[in-house]
Specification:
The chain is of the alpha/beta class. The chain is built from 4 helices and 7 strands. α1 crosses α2.
Length: 140
């Protein structure tokens, strides 16, 4: 993967397809940190990413449960930090163990936990809301 890739999508299906392409390239231990405004399409991107990792169920937002797990070619941990109030809360959830484990960890609202992210984290920022095209920047 290039150090930085920019993709512009006009429809949710294209955003999902971009996530799927990234998912196909990920290996166990990868951490993907997603940022973007509410409604930018982070969960849509994750749905494709999870499919790209071989999971057969459709990913749903873990906003209220904080972590969803899916089984693909490796375990996938989908974390949503939107409703968390502190780094301690995320640590207590076992986030550090997930990030250091044998699966792929995907974190929505990752800007809330930047200090906890490992140096090799893949950063994905999605810009645009509503009917606007999405600008997806992926930094490896």
């Amino acid at each position: 993967m290039a150090p930085e890739t920019e993709i512009v999508t006009a429809r949710a299906e294209e955003t999902e397809a971009a996530g799927e392409r990234l998912g196909r390239s990920l290996a166990a231990g990868a951490v993907v940190a997603l940022t973007g405004e509410l409604g930018a399409g982070k969960t849509c991107f994750v749905q494709g990413l999870v499919r790209g990792l071989g999971a057969t169920v459709r990913a749903t937002s873990p906003t209220f449960v904080l972590v969803n797990q899916y089984q693909g070619r490796v375990p996938v941990h989908h974390v949503d930090a939107y409703r968390t109030d502190s780094l301690t809360e995320l640590i207590d959830l076992g986030l550090l163990e997930l990030m250091g484990g044998p699966g792929v960890t995907v974190i929505e609202w990752a800007d809330k936990l930047r200090p906890l992210l490992p140096p090799e984290t893949i950063h994905v920022h999605i810009g645009g809301v509503g009917d606007e095209p999405r600008s997806i920047t992926i930094r490896a």
